Each structure stands twice: as C-alpha cells, then as structure tokens.
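debug: dumping io for the single-chain case to check the tokenizer round-trip. Nothing else runs in this session.
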Amino acid sequence: MKKIIKKLGLLLMSVILLFITVTLLFYHLPLKRPEIKPDTGDVLIANIHVVDVEHERIRLNQNVVISAGKIEKISASSEPGDYSRHRLIDGRGKYLMPGLWDMHTHSLKISPYIHHPLFIRYGVTSVRDMSGCLDQNDTYWACPEDRKKWTQLSEAGEAVSPTYHHQSSYQTNGGNEVPDGFAEYFRLNTRSDAAQLVGFYVGQGVDFIKTYTELSADQFKWLA
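debug: decoded output
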C-alpha cells in the first residue's frame, strides 16, 4: 500500500512539475502580435444597407465612398463608374453599421495579443476600460499609459486595437482592495489621503475614480 501511495505521490509531483515547466515556457515565449493589413487604397461599397443609428432606420441600397480611410459620401445615387479608381466591394444583401462600444472592459498587458483582435473581429471598435493601476507600471494590469499608447498606434495604422475612451483608476473601496506594500493613502483613512490618491491618478492621466460600494459617506465626500 505504501508503495502505491509513493508511486501516486511521485506521479502527482511529476504532473505538477510538468505543468509548471510548460507554464514557464509559454510565459517566456514571445507572443505574436496580430497581423496588420492596412488598406491604402480607396474603396466603394456598392448597394449595401446602411444602419442609420442617428435616425433609427435602415437606408437601403446605399453606395458608400471611402477615400483616404475616411467615409466621403453615403448616397443611393452614386454609381460605381463615378469612382472607377476605387476598389469595388459588392455589398448586396449585407449591412453596414457603426462600430460597437463595450462600456466595461478590463485590459491586461497581454491584451494586444488576445483581446484586441477579438474586439475588432466582432465589430467592437471603441471601449471604456474600468481597470487601473496602483503603480506607474503594473506587470499584469494595463495602465492608462498602455491604453493611450494602444489607441495612438491603432489610429496611426500600426496596431490592431479598439479606441480606449477615458481612463479609470484602480477600484477604490475603502481600503480592503489595497494589497500590502502599496502607499497607505490608497486606504483613504483621512481627507489628506483622498487628496494624495486623486493627485496620484491625475499624474497617471486618469479621467475618473472608480468607486465601490464599501466606501463610507465620508470617504466618498473626500474624493468628491
């Protein structure tokens, strides 16, 4: 019986060591960024149904002219021959709509390799990220500087990423959310702490403080 238990123990240890080795291997391997395929030419999307969200209607059989990466014209009267130098896309039976927004996301340092291609693949072109950093350079969570950089690279055609609108602080919940080793003012024990906390996030370029339900009335007033 002891031999069986010993063998099972050795087997379990071997599996654990193998798992740790594989995890470390994948952690240190360079991740491949999504391929960037910029479209430098002009485009005419012909006979496509446009979802007009401003007027809450479907505009049938429209011709959409895109020049230098910008929508130049949407009209039912523009004929493909008017734009002979544009690449023609047949939009018959399809729909064109504005990009979707995800209003509550949490980005990580590895988001450019995992989340960003998926956002774009499913039509999410803008996001509001609701996570932040208690340090200027967190090793796991993406910080405001990271998200601003991703947006700039995307707008320059150098990366695949949604646009990040507004920057959030790390969650502020009265102190229980703060790991050991971080500045005491994050726990909001005094009005002075609130001033230091806000000052820290102003330095990060944060647009709003993410507040949680366990803040006391006084802590909330200090932050406000």
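debug: round-trip ok. The chain has a mean pLDDT of 89.
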